[in-house]
Amino acid sequence: MNLLKTSLLATVLFFAVTSCSKEEAAEVEEANISIDLNLAQETDWTMANEVLRLVNEYRTSMGLSTIARDQQYASAYAVEHTKYMIEKSQINHDNFGDRSRALKNRGAESVGENVAAGYDSAEALVTAWLNSPSHKSVIEGNYTHSGFGIMQNHRGKYYFTQLFYRK
Fold first, then answer.
1. Which of 85, 87, 59, 81 is nearest to 147 (CA)?
2. What is the three-state SS of 38-72?
3. What span, in angstroms and rounded, lies between the C-alpha atoms of 150 and 75?
4. DSSP string, 70-127
5. Residues with Cβ within 8 Å of residue 54, at least 6 apart in sequence
6. Phi and psi for 120 in degrees, rounded to 5?
7. Could you tell me the maximum CA-CA distance found in the chain, to the nearest angstrom?
8. Which stretch of 32-36, 56-60, 113-117 has the lowest confidence by average pLDDT?
9. Is there a contact between 150 and 47 (Cβ–Cβ < 8 Å)?
10. Which residues contact 58 (CB under 8 A, 6 or more apart)?
């Protein structure tokens, strides 16, 4: 029974650790990290602004500084990743190292990312993230800026990528 508990705990910890990324685990050599800034305009900014408001309300309640909206590079990379997740029909952190490196090349000191799918409101999304220790730790991280990739697939299901970084 103890072995079963240990195995289950290891599985849960693996899931929790891999559910969101604070730093890239490995960098891909010579990856193309250029981005079309026009992608940032494709995010659902009404939803993104509400997510940011809720995240900042939470951060303020915890004595943390608020996060500024990045409607350029971080959002373009977030939209690109959200489109990728929609194409794959699954949430993931594939190629996070490239997004992190791209933002670091533009002056970011550290980068984090939360992803999700299927929530119909900013409130439901932020509540779910705050109830997940790994996502909550990213929200509470030492970050100054955030970019958003919030889009619906052809069936109206929302997919979310929120990139956090410190400058």
1. 81
2. HHHHHCCHHHHHHHHHHHHHHHHHCCCCCCEECCC
3. 9
4. --SHHHHHHHHHHHHHHHHTS---TTHHHHHHHHHHTT-SEEEEEEEE--SSHHHHHH
5. 122, 123, 126
6. -100, -5
7. 55
8. 32-36
9. yes
10. 126, 130, 139
Place of tokens 């956090």: 164
Q: Is the dihedral of CA 14, 16, 20, 24 positive or negative?
A: negative
**3-state secondary structure (DSSP) of residue 164:** strand
Give the DSSP letter of residue 155.
T
- How many whole angstroms separate alpha carbon 90 and alpha carbon 14? 18
Q: Which two tokens stand for residue 69?
A: 């909206």
- CA–CA distance from 59 to each of 52, 73, 118, 141, 144 (Å)? 10, 23, 24, 9, 11
Mean pLDDT of 118-145: 97
The 8-class DSSP code of residue 35 comes to: -
What is this structure's pTM?
Answer: 0.81
